[in-house]
Amino acid sequence: MLRPVALLALLLAAPAAAQVPDHAALRDRFYFGAGVFFPQTTTQAQLDSSRLGVGTNIDFEQSLDMARSKTVPSVFGRWRFGERWRLDAEYFELNRTGERTLDRDVQWGELVLPAGSGVTSQFDFSDLRVSVGYAFFRAPDKELGVGFGLHLASYDVRLSTRTQGSDGEDVLAPLPVLSVYGQFALTDRWAVGSRLDRFSLSYDKYDGSLTSLGLDLTYQPFRHLGFGAGYRGLFIRMNADGDRATLRFRQTFEGPLLFVNASF
Known about the structure:
The protein has one domain (21-263): OMPT-like (Lipocalin, Beta Barrel), CATH 2.40.128.90. It is built from 3 helices and 14 strands. The chain has helices at residues 4-13, 24-27, 60-63; strands spanning 30-37, 40-49, 58-59, 72-81, 85-101, 106-108, 111-113, 118-139, 142-161, 165-185, 190-203, 206-219, 225-241, 245-263. A 10-stranded antiparallel β-barrel has the order 1-4-5-8-9-10-11-12-13-14. A two-stranded antiparallel sheet has the order 6-7. The longest helix is centred in the first third of the chain and has 10 residues, at 4-13. The termini are far apart.
């Protein structure tokens, strides 16, 4: 049996309990960010016509000289309501055009374009992500949760020539997703967060899949202001049926994100 003096010495020699990190990203109710996204893109699309049949599958970056990379703004926010619930939203858009003389025959919707035709292309895209999440594990310095939401993906895809006019398709696709997410405070100033969204189903006039990835590292040296760097990846495969045509496309966006954030 330890004597009182020996027991006191043992307690004093024991390391102090580690302090639990207290980071604003896990504590504050409101969290907003704005930054710059640097995506690399790949785009393949075809426009089938109900009258002319299956269209030509086109690589927009390679065949139509559309830029593979572009710098675009991105905004996001989070609202914590209750002890375990959160509402997340994020938005970016990427609008591109290209000009190219075709080196092969192309059918695009109602347009039949022979090799040698000068073509102007347009591919405008925006994505609004909204998700409600529930943390099944929650502690002051960490959380793990699941969510349900949607990616509201908007497309305006068009080819045009001086001689034959233009043809294209506007698509506004609300794509429901299931999400898993995690957030961890490394110290009082550093935190890391990640999420995965997944959709794969056929409903109404849409058929396809979507995978979205996000990873953020946040440094918050001030009470209400911080800075961060992250990664975003968005991978979409979709068929969208219209009244007179079907737009089929595969598209990827992935690259780094730099941002500033405010929370309170």
